[in-house]
Amino acid sequence: MKSISYSSDLPFKKRNRYFYFPIKAKFWFSHFGAFLWMCLSIYLARPWLMNLADVVSFPIALMIIAGISYIPGYMNAFLVMSLLLDRQPPFKTVTPNDEITILIAAHNEENKIYRTLSYIAEQDYSGKMNVVVINNNSNDKTCQEVLRAIDELPIHIELLHELKPGKFHALNHALKLVKTLYVVTIDADTMLHPSSIRFLVSRMKSSPSDVSAVAGAVLTQNSRENMWTKIQEWDYFLGIASIKRLQGLYQGTLVAQGAYSLYKTECVKEVGGWPDAIGEDIVLTWRMLEKNRKVYFEPLAVSFTEVPSSFTHFVRQRARWARGMIEGLREIKPWKQPQMYVKYLTGINLVMPYLDIVYTCVWIPGLILALFGHYYIVGPMTLLVLPLTVVSYLTLYVYQRDYVFKPLRLRIRRNLVGFILFIVSYQMLMSPVSVYGYVQETLKLKRSWK
Q1: pTM of this prediction?
Q2: Which terminus of the chain has a smaller tally of CB atoms within 10 A, N or C?
């Protein structure tokens, strides 16, 4: 097994004590700061509102500007304030040795599954790892590659078969056989940092007894492939990571993603395993939250996944994510969640379709109008959201650099062009794709987990 020296920057128990700021205080203080920012935005945007009202009427103008500026500004301000106040609790143990089971659902993964298993074999985790690969109706050489790994790698690997297509079928088939206290799911194309499993289990072992899952950090492994993957690198490194940290701070990470997360086995079985849903990990997480359990996020438990390298693949993936969110909202209403923070976090998702529709159907056409000198919708006032966005990303960049990448001896790749394109154009792609996913789910179009 590989080992690394423990850096003083890691959140271990011996780290110097810091002033404790209660979660409730962080929550309301962040809301207060966000409210002040929104009030300032409303005050400064009065001329913009009045000018637009002359064109489309006051109620419609208010709905448009609220979707473009007021609400996104409030949410960004809340995010920034929360991230500035966030302090990850220290680990109580740094060398857990609990026996765990790792599930990998694989459908036509002959080119990736051996590599994924080899990275698991290099973990510095001192406990026993039972790796179960579930072949989900593959018609390539996935099984042969798993058998090669069984012969060549120094870890216990078991190969199961599930003919029913669907990731949830594969995972539930293996779940019946899991006897360990903890179960980890990893995608077949995911590579783990050598200490990733150890940090994931350490966070669970250091958490209160009502924590049912810990989501790992997922970053891109193929960011150098083309410009499209370079842009997504920043989404995973800054955008997705910032949301995960925010949700983890308030003990309600909304997606313990199937790509890399740890669960208490009994908690997964308690809610009936993975559901028949396109966003099976979203619905599973929300069901556990509904049971008044908490879900954490561990930024040091780093994994690397292949992101879509084509626009078509990207659209399919993000549309699935949007559909998964709608599935979760349909099954478990935010107001039915027992925890206050989770009510708020899931409630935000109720607003997301409205924001995406306004952005797609109003802001993008408004940008086109602005290019021809018509500033009814997009104008100088819309730039007020940009500084807060940059501040939030800068805050997370510093955190990721100093408290994640540096202790793990990782380097941030130089990708300035990808960063600029991410800031300038990414939302113009994401919102229409999300709207496409909402339409798919509304019309109940065919689903696919790949």
Answers
A1: 0.90
A2: N
